[in-house]
Specification:
alpha+beta; eight-stranded antiparallel β-sheet
Length: 240
């Protein structure tokens, strides 16, 4: 009985040491991955990285991680000339093959989400002078700013000086477009006499986080607190 008890205690202690070593190793790998994502330019700031699954060491030996989660609330995205904040970014990457130095990594598939506020979204759109079409009989103040807000499922509201309208949002790849604007109420009555209307508004995002892209035709969806972006990717080069 004593021999059995000693062996059991020994196994428990050894298991505890192995679990501890596994958790230390995964923590080191997560920190290294976060640093590499920034230094490679895939992320604009250091994200939180979580490598899921246990044990980690067996995944490390195979050089392929089953499930990696990335999150950040301070990233930026833009169209090459203008940058805005991407809030609440979260991504799940499956089948991440890494090199022994973690200098390169590829991803079998990945999904993610993030949010651009309406105030920031307006900064990605063309100048106010380019947003109106038709007669100039209905003047818009030179310092007027475009403001955007939620217009219901799939729609946003746009206001510019005395004009207010509602349009639909869709995307083609990483290009997001708001169009089909219909002027509302008094704005529509005033603009009807001058044939004014909002032009389609669009922008193309580049260098999206973690090498992902906007998903399908529903990658940009208006929500009450901003434009929600949905990301996806297959055979993505994450690092290197």
């Amino acid at each position: 009985m004593r021999g059995w008890l000693k062996a059991t205690i020994g196994l428990v202690v050894l298991s505890g040491l192995l679990v501890g070593a596994d958790r230390i190793a995964v923590g080191v790998a997560e920190d290294e991955a976060a640093d590499q994502l920034v230094s490679s330019g895939r992320m604009s700031q250091r994200p939180d990285v979580s490598i899921e699954g246990f044990p980690f060491l067996t995944q490390a030996v195979s050089m392929k991680l089953d499930d990696v989660r990335i999150s950040s609330d301070g990233l930026t995205v833009g169209d090459g000339s203008r940058q805005v904040a991407l809030h609440s970014f979260k991504a799940r990457l499956s089948g991440v093959a890494v090199s022994d130095s973690m200098k390169s990594a590829t991803v079998d598939s990945g999904t993610g989400t993030g949010l651009i506020t309406y105030a920031d979204l307006a900064q990605l759109l063309p100048p106010a002078s380019q947003l109106l079409k038709g007669s100039s009989a209905l003047p818009v103040p030179a310092n007027a700013r475009l403001t955007l807000s939620y217009g219901g499922p799939g729609k946003i509201k746009a206001s510019l000086g005395p004009l207010q309208g509602e349009g639909s949002v869709h995307n083609d790849g990483n290009t997001v477009t708001a169009d089909g604007f219909r002027l509302n109420g008094l704005a529509g009555m005033l603009a009807g006499a001058t044939n004014q209307r909002f032009e389609p508004m669009s922008f193309t995002l580049d260098q999206l986080p973690a090498g992902l892209k906007l998903a399908g035709a529903d990658g940009a969806t208006p929500q009450p607190d901003g434009l929600q972006l949905t990301f996806e990717g297959k055979d993505v080069r994450l690092l290197g």
